[in-house]
Design goal:
Oligomer: homotetramer
Distance between the termini of chain A: 56 Å
Radius of gyration of chain A: 29 Å
Shape of chain A: flat
Order of helices and strands of chain A: HHHHHHHHHHHH
Largest interface: C-D, 66 and 63 residues
């Protein structure tokens, strides 16, 4: 009689895991939604703690509060990570999935910094490493990706338009390389009356390309800007090109999406009149009235 | 015989209120339109007065004119507020509605500043409060919202696209947090030869995030800009990302609206099953097959 | 026998005017197209002359050439203006039309400056007036409007979307007024340790509104930018608002145009099956095959 | 018996050339794709070499490596150019085609600089020429155009919208000329107390137009910005105009593309009249009424 008990136990165990699975991994049930909202708040608060820590005034004013909050969130996310591994149907698959790695990276930095290696006198080298590791914690923001179920439509749209976006980006980059080189030729390499080279921000092609990107994307910091007449004319042409260029790809993506989105028609064919183009909710053929 | 008289009186009273109601709250009748236009001009002029007051040269040149105009508009809006309360079918509902609160806030500041508390020797503290209250009057501009009946289409479009806009904004903010942190790591925390920290504008994550927002939205003030090669490369990537990102959501909103607006459905109702939403070229009801 | 001659003469005269009318006012015939292209070149060259004149180095190098070119184009446009008046079917209507006034304004400045009033010793006052009048000549560029026949589609689209553009602009301006006032409160009116007011570029509401427009349209000069933490946070919110705001109206205009443009269907109804939605080039009903 | 041999030889020769032709000029076969990918990598690497050479620090650190890489890529592209000429069906047509000229220009600069003329003492004049020629090599990036087969859709879209883009650009340029001239009048030509002219960046119409383009395209460097109240007001109007202007053409292009792409026409050809372009739901040919 031990077998059924074991089975029951296993069943109960399974159902216990299944129930937790639904709460943690899915967002259909009220409990699952509540868990998601609480986790969202915890992620945002923990990112806020990292941000506050980077501001010197706050770090010096509340050192204990920040360390306490840090450990609170680390333990919370460690608990979450553990429960996710226990509940997951295929733990290994979860661990090596994108979200599994993000969840692990969200807790590791705090533990790593607590290691004895990082104790003792703070040499500059060691401090820089600690600083980098501490900042890694901000990548917890990626945990939000769990919740972006709505993003799938966006992802599909980007995926569908990937060829066009690639062409668009290639075109932008080719323009950036050519205009950057031309501006390097026009604005760079000038010397003053003493034969000293003047620093213009166009002194190498990569620097000119940085300027070209800043200009073409209409950001326009103004830390580097052309000073010669020819350079200004070329810059003006590039701005108008960049301004026009945003119009055409926007139109293409819109048209593609409008076309794709308008296809809510089934591929059903009327058995009587072979009419096509029926709406997804059609029961009868709209041309001859026959049942579909 | 007093009853009918009372009724008549009440009826006349009602119709008097009803007539005013139409003039003040609606814009269908010529009188209602005229009232709206006059109110629009009064709002714009009163906002202009607040603006002029904030310019020191004008404030000193025409002090009496500005105070007079201020009281004129305050009394005008007080009168309007009173009539609205009297005419409104449910006065309480109006008072606590968005527009009721805006209308009240449009007149309060002038009265509050005239209170005896604010008289006497002008201490700096008291002056700052007065200044803040005076500026509150500029929120009269919200009274314009009464007139934006056309905005409902925009509001619906934004409401329909709210999920997509939220995803878009989440994506922007995640990118801002990550790039901001990375730039803080790359550009911030540098020391000069004396061991003094150099102020770069990337000295904390919030400051870096401010830079990231300025860059990603293509505003690009240039008050903070990267100076290291790695920082410039990351900034260039972010600009191109921000440039591409405006394309996809625009396309999605366009497609959604085109789909919604372009359904070109007739308002025909099936005589049999009362089904709606038939395509313009439908001959038979797509639900029951009856001839339309 | 004088009557027929007079008629013939009048007829010939008419046909001579009619022929010139076609060449000058229309662009269907080869001669009309050639005239338009030559006029286009003349306009662009004359604008180029005005531009060159404003550059001091060029003005001093070729003073006679510029004056000569100036008089050449003025006489050319005077000739054109005269012929247009002679050929026009209703000369008065042409003279007081938009293009008539533009054509007149294109030639007046040169004659006005040649008047004896402007001769003699060049007082500063007189020079400023001359300078303003000379620059007026650049408005010759409006003569190009004659040729923008393609612009009618754009004009119609803007006209159709005028209500939405007005709502959009109202919303932008309300946001500019409110954010400008808030920034004036946050960033303006600060005093240094000596009690002297610090000039921040947010010293009055109009100045703050200028900043708000520069920011919201993503221009971002950087001549004025927030320096306090709260001001930067508000600026960041405004930038994201401005970035999102460009998406929704673009989508609305696209959808409206897509809807309008997609209606290349005739309103023709099949006389047999009453089918609608036929393409403009359809000869037979696409449902039953009957002749339309 | 020599004839058939010759024919065979010619045939084999032809097939050898045909096989190479497919690999080099087309991208349908696996070998063709591999060739394209390898060429892509070579182009990007060779452009990278040119870029590195323009950075002084890298040029001084690895002079031999860069020269070696330069000659390696030049010989590689020379080989490619030679094989392309041999394999091309009409060598002359290839040589004088856009791609043929680009391929030639990609290899020429290295050979030209190796000529004895450029040897000997480096005079400044000679160095500038060498520098310009060296930079020409960056135009190798145009060789990428071979691979942008996806770009044809974009090119078609731009071609279809050329009239509208031309109108849009004309409108932008007219606005730039007029606002530039007005700003030159308002901001330029001011003198300080000593009668000296102040340099404002609006000292000539071309300079003002440069500012107008920087502003209208929302780049906004901030190297030139208005300082007077009137100038700021005009600049604000121009920014809002530029902000609105990007909406309408985007909508027009989107609508045009949506219309073109959404025609959902079948590729069906009428069996009677050979008419094409039938709607997906057509039963009868819309031209002759024959059943499809």
């Amino acid at each position: 009689m031990s077998k059924p008990t074991a089975m029951n136990e296993k069943h109960e165990n399974l159902s216990w895991r299944a129930r937790w699975y639904e709460v943690i991994f899915e967002a259909d049930t009220p409990a699952g939604k509540l868990f998601d909202v609480l986790l969202l708040i915890a992620i945002l608060l923990s990112v806020l703690v990292v941000m506050c820590e980077s501001v010197e005034a706050i770090r010096k004013a509340y050192p204990k509060l920040l360390v306490g909050a840090e450990w609170f969130f680390t333990l919370l996310f460690t608990l979450e990570y553990g429960v996710r591994i226990i509940c997951a149907r295929r733990p290994k698959r979860y661990i090596f999935s994108f979200y599994g790695i993000v969840d692990l990276l969200a807790i590791l930095p705090t533990y790593v910094i607590a290691l004895p290696i990082f104790e003792g006198g703070p040499s500059a080298q060691r401090l820089a490493v600690i600083r980098a590791i501490r900042l890694l914690r901000v990548f917890r923001i990626f945990k939000l990706a769990h919740m972006l179920s709505e993003a799938s439509a966006l992802r599909q749209a980007i995926w569908a338009a990937r060829a066009k976006i690639a062409v668009f980006l290639s075109f932008v980059l080719i323009a950036v390389v050519i205009v950057g080189s031309a501006m390097h030729l026009i604005e760079g390499g000038r010397v003053d009356s003493d034969g000293q080279q003047i620093v213009t921000g166009f002194d190498s092609i990569p620097e000119s390309m940085y300027w070209a990107i800043v200009t073409m994307t209409t950001v326009g910091y103004g830390d580097v800007s052309p000073t010669t007449g020819l350079g200004k004319a070329l810059a003006a042409c590039m701005m108008i090109l960049g301004y026009c260029m945003i119009i055409v790809p926007t139109g293409i993506v819109s048209a593609e999406l409008a076309h794709a989105g308008g296809k809510s028609q089934t591929t059903q064919v009327c058995p009587e009149c072979m009419g096509e183009g029926h709406a997804a909710d059609a029961v009868h053929c709209k041309y001859c009235g026959a049942k579909l």
